[in-house]
Known about the structure:
The structure holds 2 protein chains of 2 kinds.
Chain A: E1 4-7, E2 10-13, E3 19-25, E4 38-43, E5 50-54, E6 58-59, E7 67-72, E8 75-80, E9 89-95, E10 102-103, E11 107-111
Parallel strand pairs in A: 2-11
Antiparallel strand pairs in A: 1-3, 3-8, 4-5, 4-9, 5-6, 7-8, 9-10, 9-11
Chain B: E1 2-6, E2 9-11, E3 17-24, E4 32-38, E5 44-50, E6 59-61, E7 69-74, E8 79-84, E9 93-100, E10 106-109, E11 113-117
Parallel strand pairs in B: 2-11
Antiparallel strand pairs in B: 1-3, 3-8, 4-5, 4-9, 5-6, 7-8, 9-10, 9-11
Amino acid sequence: EIVMTQTPLSSAVTLGQPASISCKSSQSLVHSDGNTYLSWLHQRPGQPPRLLIYKISNRFSGVPDRFSGSGAGTDFTLKINRVEAEDVGVYYCMQATRFPITFGQGTRLEIK
Amino acid sequence: VQLVESGGGLVEPGGSLRLSCAASGFTFSNGWMTWVRQAPGKGLEWVGRIKSEADGGATDYAAAVKGRFTISRDDSQDTLYLQMNTLKTEDTAVYYCIKVGSSGGFDFWGQGTLVRVSS
Lengths: 112, 119
């Protein structure tokens, strides 16, 4: 099983300031088809998660461009270039390259 | 896209429950679907996946539920199912029904249904 490790586990950010979350996988996430199935999800309190980023760096429909994803192999990063109040909640990275599909532990983002 | 789960509730250990997920807003028969669960106050755990019938309809499961849970689909009713047998207290969670995008991302999530396993 691929283990996904996120850091930090919590972060308090001032509105308008940037935030960054790291996600490291225990194995390369490059699939045999050449794609890397690394996604980022955001869960607001009391809500289901929603997809932000897929295949490392592709923003899902409707996701603001202040969110960006980067990385390769085993190291990935989600960046928010100017945090807004609606960005609070828990962020998860997820790999779907190999079964079982696994998630990071989650990173809680709060406003300072 | 709308996904509406139902069928959750309180069940005793060793019991069974069947969850349903009514899908709309997309061509359900073409969609790969997955279930993810979230124990109270915890993170996300993948439960299993079913491919479209056109892609063979194969299922895959997490080790924790393999042999106890079964995912199925009724494309004529645009409905996804999760049959859960021999339930354990550690199966207590909100269960989410999710559409898998062509990119492999989990692109649409239902609101979830709570399953509580307790005596």
